[in-house]
Every structure is written in structure tokens, then in C-alpha cells.
């Protein structure tokens, strides 16, 4: 059993524990302003050859078809826009992060599929409902990072994680994944991820979404709608078995969640259809960077 401080200290003392590429944090600061400077953003990306290569391949992929090929980072930024660039930078950074991890108890390809699936699901719900009236790229980012704590604990604490049942295997189905983790590890994956993301210097709005995505009802009020949105997207993907972060399949979504967001549960299947199609088209990411199971 660990306290949060003991666990994070132990994880951060592991020399092989990778972080997201440094360029991601530099770009996050440059993009998270009212009017980003296209020249500055272009220079930052251009200083990272793997990111430059991936970004140009993505800009010229079937996802972003155009009559003329994009040959420079600045052209890619102009074509796609800052919001899309921010999403792609985090996508590529997360793939590189997952690829750099030593073999753990979670299948990296399935983990990636679930993470990107939740990111796409948040975008799809937002598109259909207009629930969020601000920067849509942040929804994608929190969806991508929401289960980072599961990946970290399964990789670096296998001795306490390996016998952890998911919701489907639990003898008491009333217990949430957080309850099960707290019993086995001492803390849960949302606490692990939030602490690591905070140490990495990511904005508090991202940290809070990740920290409370299983408990939106106790989240800070100013972000509660966004966190309910993440909670719903994660739940839809678990019901539809979109990838796997090791939490198991969710059997149902509480009606109160739909009511809070003013949505109808009948939309679940049509949302899943769109999410799976986007994942299929995003396969270029894993093929470019090379996730291996």
C-alpha cells in the first residue's frame, strides 16, 4: 500500500520512466494563448525531426486530403489550424510515450485505441450537442490522457497491479474500478495520473479533468460540465469495447449522467459508429510512430 506522495516519488525515481517529449510542453504554452504565433510554433516543431516528419505525413494523409501536397511545417499549420495542430502534437507525443514504455500488463495498442477513442468520442458529443463553447482541442487532449494512471501503474507497479480485477471480474459488481485499485494499491489511477501530469506542468484544467473523470459529481464546479463530458465519453467507449485500458467493459451508464448533460442514451450506438470510423482513419498515427504490442 502506498500514499500518493510515496507512489509518485517512487515512480519519478525510476530512471527509465519517460515523460511526454519536452517539445509537447513548449508547444502547449505557445498554443495555449489567444493568438499563437505561427512562425514560433513552426520553429518549435521544426526543431523536432520525428515530430516534423509525423506532422507532414499526417497533413498529407487521407485524413487531411488536399489538391496540393504540404511540404513545410508552416504550410501544415496554416492548412490545419492551431486547434488541429495542438491535437495532433499530443497524439504523436502520446504515441511516442506509449512506444517508449517497457512491456507492462496492458496492451499498448489496445490502450492507445481506447485513449484516442475517448478523445474522438468527446469531440463527437461536443459536435452534436455544443456542450462546450470553448477550445475543442482541450477536449481531445484530456480524452487522450485520461487513463494515463492505468498505464503507469500497470507498467511500473506490476507486483501490486497484476492481480487487480476489473469491474467484470470483481466479486462485488457494486465496487468501482477506483475502489478496487484503492484496495490493492492504496490509491487509484486518477490520482496517479493527475499527480504525474501536474509534475509535468500541464494546465490545471487538464489535470482536474483526468483526476475527476470517474467522479464528476465532486469535481470543481467550474469544470464539472467538461468532466461529465469526459466521464460519458469514457463510459460509451467502455460499453462499446473501444480499445482497453484494463478497466473492463461497463455494463450501463447511469441515467443521471445523461440527464446532467441533457442527452438521450439512444445516441450511444450512432456515436460509437462515428468514433470507430475516426479510429480507423487515425491508424496512420500508430503506423507512423510504430506502437508495438
TrEMBL record:
InterPro entries assigned to the protein according to its UniProt record, in alphabetical order: HD/PDEase_dom, HDIG_dom, HDOD, RNase_Y/CdgJ
Domain HDOD: 17-216
Gene3D superfamilies, sorted: Hypothetical protein af1432
Pfam family, one: HDOD
SMART domains: HDc
Domain of life, per lineage: Bacteria
Transmembrane intervals: none
Name of the protein in its database record: HDOD domain-containing protein
Amino acid at each position: 500500500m502506498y500514499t500518493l506522495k510515496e507512489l509518485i516519488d517512487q515512480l519519478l525515481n525510476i530512471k527509465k520512466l519517460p515523460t511526454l517529449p519536452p517539445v509537447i510542453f513548449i508547444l502547449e504554452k505557445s498554443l495555449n494563448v489567444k493568438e499563437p504565433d505561427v512562425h514560433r510554433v513552426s520553429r518549435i516543431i521544426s526543431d523536432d525531426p520525428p515530430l516534423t516528419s509525423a506532422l507532414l505525413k499526417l497533413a498529407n494523409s487521407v485524413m487531411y486530403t488536399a489538391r496540393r501536397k504540404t511540404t513545410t511545417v508552416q504550410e501544415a499549420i496554416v492548412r490545419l489550424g492551431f486547434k488541429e495542430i495542438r491535437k495532433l502534437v499530443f497524439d504523436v507525443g502520446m504515441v511516442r510515450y506509449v512506444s517508449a514504455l517497457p512491456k507492462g500488463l496492458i496492451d499498448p495498442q489496445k490502450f492507445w485505441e481506447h485513449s484516442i477513442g475517448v478523445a474522438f468520442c468527446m469531440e463527437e458529443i461536443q459536435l452534436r450537442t455544443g456542450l462546450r463553447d470553448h477550445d475543442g482541442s482541450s477536449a481531445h487532449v484530456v480524452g487522450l490522457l485520461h487513463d494515463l494512471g492505468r498505464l503507469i501503474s500497470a507498467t511500473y507497479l506490476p507486483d501490486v497491479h497484476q492481480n487487480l480485477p476489473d469491474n467484470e471480474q470483481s466479486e462485488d459488481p457494486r465496487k468501482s474500478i477506483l475502489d478496487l485499485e484503492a484496495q490493492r494499491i492504496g490509491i487509484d489511477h486518477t490520482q496517479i495520473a493527475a499527480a504525474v501530469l501536474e509534475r509535468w506542468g500541464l494546465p490545471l484544467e487538464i489535470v482536474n479533468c483526468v483526476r475527476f473523470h470517474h467522479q464528476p459529481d465532486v469535481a470543481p464546479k467550474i469544470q464539472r460540465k467538461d468532466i461529465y463530458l469526459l466521464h460519458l465519453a469514457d463510459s460509451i467507449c467502455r460499453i462499446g469495447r473501444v480499445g482497453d485500458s484494463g478497466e473492463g467493459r461497463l455494463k450501463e451508464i447511469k441515467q443521471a449522467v445523461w440527464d446532467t448533460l441533457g442527452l438521450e442514451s439512444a445516441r450511444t450506438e450512432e456515436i460509437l459508429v462515428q468514433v470507430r470510423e475516426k479510429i480507423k482513419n487515425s491508424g496512420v498515427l500508430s503506423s507512423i510512430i510504430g506502437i508495438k504490442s
